[in-house]
Specification:
The protein is mainly beta and 331 residues long. Helices cover 13% and strands 47% of the residues. It has six helices and 14 strands. The relative contact order is 0.21.
């Protein structure tokens, strides 16, 4: 068992879904980059191609693609909203705010950390048309050579850019002046090992206001179902209290043998003495067996006619729990 105090972090933690952390019993998931969909694009000089849209959650995430081009291209990410607006007003292309720009690419693995906003991958042919040497001039969109594969092109988190879809529809009848063929291999960040995991959830065991008395209050019925089972206990009382988790066979004897009380607490790490308002956590293993929560006023005399609030939650396996049982058998 282990006793730790985290008064603020746990409050934030409980607001989130409990997402299968490692408890030392089941190996953690292993992730890696795996090839996803791919596409072949044809560009004329100064053409643009809008590739995949990326929707990174949380604080953002990484993306990765392999690019192989016959002639040099520039690769970057832009805000999808800004790109779609620029398609309507090509003169604004020169003012697009680019991220992770790489120039003169012929063959490369392109990576970028994507912020938590929708971003579009853009590939631009670096050649200039004789009529328009200014690199800011928009000379059109490239074409996806196999537009029938368009529906499968999104890699985990995104869809095709609007402009590229329009270009794909015209690919079959378009005549290119000086084609530059570009192959794009998208990658997905996927689980490759130990992908099925137990799922855990905080479960209420005790939540009540009870009338204070000088007698010991015992709440039983908690048994850890995996090693490193977390328990959270919260107390709010008008008088100093003793709060502890004890093995149920010992806790059940304390009413009949109150003289055992101090000895039972002496070597027990999951306890707090003389507390009135506190939230603390303890950890239990399978081998600890059934546990009971005990609470009582530190002083037996002059207990006020008031109520104390007591709460207890524990982490319980709710899905794929057979993996825990299998691991326990293998010990």
């Amino acid at each position: 068992m282990r006793n730790t105090k985290t008064p603020v972090l746990l409050t934030l933690f409980l607001l989130c879904a409990f997402a299968a952390p490692s408890y030392g019993q089941v190996p953690e998931r292993v992730f890696n980059w795996l090839p996803g969909n791919q596409e072949d694009v044809r560009l004329d000089p100064a053409n643009y191609h809008a590739g995949q849209n990326y929707h990174a959650g949380g604080d953002g995430g990484n993306m990765q693609v392999d690019i192989k081009s016959q002639l040099p291209v520039t690769i970057f990410l832009v805000h999808s909203e800004a790109w779609n607006a620029a398609l309507q007003h090509p003169e604004s292309l020169n003012g697009l705010q680019q991220m992770c720009t790489r120039e003169h690419v012929v063959e490369a693995r392109y990576t970028c950390f994507v912020p938590p906003v929708e971003m579009t991958l853009i590939i631009r042919d670096e050649r200039y048309t004789p009529e328009s040497p200014d690199r800011a001039v928009f000379s059109g969109l490239g074409a996806v050579l196999d537009p029938n594969n368009r529906a499968e092109r999104a890699v985990g988190a995104g869809i095709a850019g609007i402009g590229a879809v329009m270009a794909g529809r015209e690919a079959a009848k378009r005549q290119f002046k000086a084609p530059n063929d570009v192959h794009i291999q998208y990658f997905r960040w996927l689980c490759v090992d130990n992908c099925i995991q137990p799922r855990f959830q905080w479960t209420w065991q005790v939540k009540e206001k009870y009338q204070l008395t000088s007698f010991l209050k015992v709440y039983g019925g908690f048994t850890p179902d995996h090693d490193s089972t977390q328990v959270s206990i919260k107390i709010k009382s008008p008088v100093p209290m003793v709060v502890a988790m004890l093995p149920s066979d010992i806790a059940n004897q304390l009413h009949a043998k109150p003289e055992m009380f101090e000895a039972a607490l002496e070597k027990n790490p999951c306890q707090q003495r003389g507390v009135q308002s506190l939230e603390f956590q303890c950890t239990f293993n399978l081998g600890d067996g059934p546990q009971s929560l005990i609470v009582a006023p530190e002083a037996n005399g002059n207990v006020p006619h008031k109520k104390a609030e007591i709460e207890m939650q524990f982490v319980k396996c709710i899905e794929n729990c057979q993996l825990l049982e299998t691991k326990a058998v293998q010990r």
